[in-house]
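In full, the data.
>
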Amino acid sequence: MKQPVTIKKHEGKLGILLPGMGAVATTTIAGALLARKGKGTPIGSLTQMGTIRLGKRTENRAPFIKDFLKLPSLDDVAFGGWDLFPDSAYESAKHAEVLTNEHLDEVKGELEAIKPMPAVFYPEYVKRLHGTHVKKGADKWEMAQQVETDIQTFLKTNGCTRGVAVWCGSTEVYIEPSAVHQSLKAFEDGLKNNDPGISNSQIYAYACLKQNVPFANGAPNLSVDMPAIWELARERSVPISGKDFKTGQTWMKTILAPGLKARMLGLRGWFSTNILGNRDGEVLDDPESFKSKEVSKLGVLEHILQPSKYKELYGNIYHKVRIEYYPPRGDAKEGWDNLDIFGWLGYPMQIKVDFLCRDSILAAPLVLDLALLMDLGSRAGFHGIQEWLSFYFKSPMHAPGLYPEHDLFIQSMKLKNTMRWMMGEELITHLGNEYYD
């Protein structure tokens, strides 16, 4: 990335497009609408509630991030998206049972007015869902053209000057990159030939980039993590980021694992299991979709703990991850972790974590932040993979030849230092005693 000389102002409305208008998307939309009306607080959102230190500690400069970056206000955004079912955002939110009627009724009219566009849906990529509100077309190329038309229509109808997309749809079956993903030409030929390597989310990503709409991937799908889409992002000068929102159990891993490594404490095993009952849990009950999630979750410890460098401490870790579909829990996910660690002279200890979290409540602020920060990146002239947004993802995308950064604290420093850098402020290194500088 080149340091921006100027950043375009956010004139007009920003269209936030959400493929997959289920629990996560509708929780995001309802929360933003409630915050806009002063009826709710967007807790968990850095862009809405976070501050950023500027200069030396003695200067006492710590503006809100939204003011420092001159981000659009919630009054300046319009929400839309696609879904497999025709339910309005209100009906979908009611079905998801994440938010109470007390909250939903405050914004009922606005939610009812948000109706999803028909989805691109080939069921072989999400086998546990059976959509009724889907597009029809001769081939995947035609599907992509329909999504492009949807984007144009939505932005025009809602008076938006630009758009950004955040994937909130389901986890697709695991797909290995193949020849069709290696170049833009091969990918476009694959669209026309209905190549099985091209999934639903990839069609959305392609269409969004063709319309100069930045795309953030909130699932472990291949979506934008391939040379063909990187090429298109460069060609169109559009930012991309991903993948898989870092919400519950993996978020805890990226807090705990750096703590073990910082103290040079050893790890013998880490067993993780989850129970989840929402649509995501149902989708992940399919072994092929679970594999996509498993790959996303398993890479975290290896990259944080660096077993090749610290063989005695982390060279023989047994790491296992399970997700179980349990309908009674709905969106209230529970994650259990057991860590077998060891310390001085090899004496064993254990850490046990029981995280009773709410999946969509944790994901919603990430969706909003990513939408606003991807738009900022676009206005700053950034394009391609946005590594500075790794803070938000389980399996952060990275430039070819590099390794991903998973440590939450390093990610946080990278995120805020990028903000400072793009706005022409000094980077914070925490070096020296600034009081005597």
